């Protein structure tokens, strides 16, 4: 029985929250998604260099500590905060914006990560239309299709729990 609990604990420790991917084009805007089940009083947005992107407190954005790279380019959605939606809109994308962003609820110690990929906007030759293919229409963009948790790991955790309860 001790071995099963050790195995179960190990599986819990290696289980990580998946990183959601968002893609955008230079000069355009993207939504970096972040939702919490309970409405925390404060949420922090940081980039991978731990620079302040935006702080949200009491349903309002605070830009006092915002890094200069993000000045006048970040917007929140106040009407959605009551629903636990702390997503932000990052405008005028630059190639240097690419990377991992973290949305944190410090009261619960919860983090959500978003991987932003910034690309050059594709161009089509003048006089020719863009050819639409199934590949070009099915690619999720801008967080429309969040990635699901690793089903195999979830299955293994369930099996470990059942095993530990049985033996």
Please, could you describe this protein's structure?
It is found in: Cell membrane. This protein has 167 residues and is of the alpha+beta class. It is 23% helix and 28% strand. Helix 1 runs antiparallel to helix 4 (151-166). The model is unreliable at 8-15 and 130-150 (pLDDT under 50).
Range of helix content: 10-25%
Shape annotation = globular
Overall pLDDT, averaged? 79
Q: Radius of gyration from the CA trace?
A: 20 Å
Write the layout of secondary structure elements.
Elements: H1 2-14, E1 20-25, E2 30-32, E3 42-47, E4 52-57, E5 60-62, E6 74-76, H2 78-81, E7 88-90, E8 99-105, E9 110-119, H3 134-138, H4 151-166
Parallel strand pairs: 1-9
Antiparallel strand pairs: 2-7, 3-4, 3-8, 4-5, 6-7, 8-9
Helix pairs in contact: 1-4
Keywords for this entry:
167 residues; 6-stranded mixed beta sheet; 3-stranded antiparallel beta sheet; 4 helices; 9 strands; 23% helix; globular; Ig-like_fold; glycoprotein
In short:
The protein is α+β, with helices and mostly antiparallel strands and 167 residues long.
């Amino acid at each position: 029985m001790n071995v099963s609990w050790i195995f179960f604990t190990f599986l819990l420790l290696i289980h990580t929250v998946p990183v959601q991917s968002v893609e955008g084009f230079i000069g355009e805007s993207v939504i970096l998604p972040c939702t919490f089940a309970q409405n925390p009083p404060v949420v922090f947005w940081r980039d991978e260099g731990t620079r302040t992107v935006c702080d949200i407190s009491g349903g309002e954005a605070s830009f006092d500590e915002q890094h200069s790279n993000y000045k006048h380019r970040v917007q929140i959605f106040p009407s959605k905060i009551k629903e636990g939606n702390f997503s932000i809109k990052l405008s005028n994308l630059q190639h240097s914006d690419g990377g991992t962003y973290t949305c944190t609820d410090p009261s619960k110690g919860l983090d959500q990560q978003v991987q932003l990929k910034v690309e050059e906007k594709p161009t089509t030759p003048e006089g020719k239309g863009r050819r639409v293919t199934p590949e070009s229409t099915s690619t999720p963009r801008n967080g429309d299709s969040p990635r699901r948790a690793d089903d195999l790991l979830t299955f293994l955790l369930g099996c470990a729990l059942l095993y530990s309860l049985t033996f």
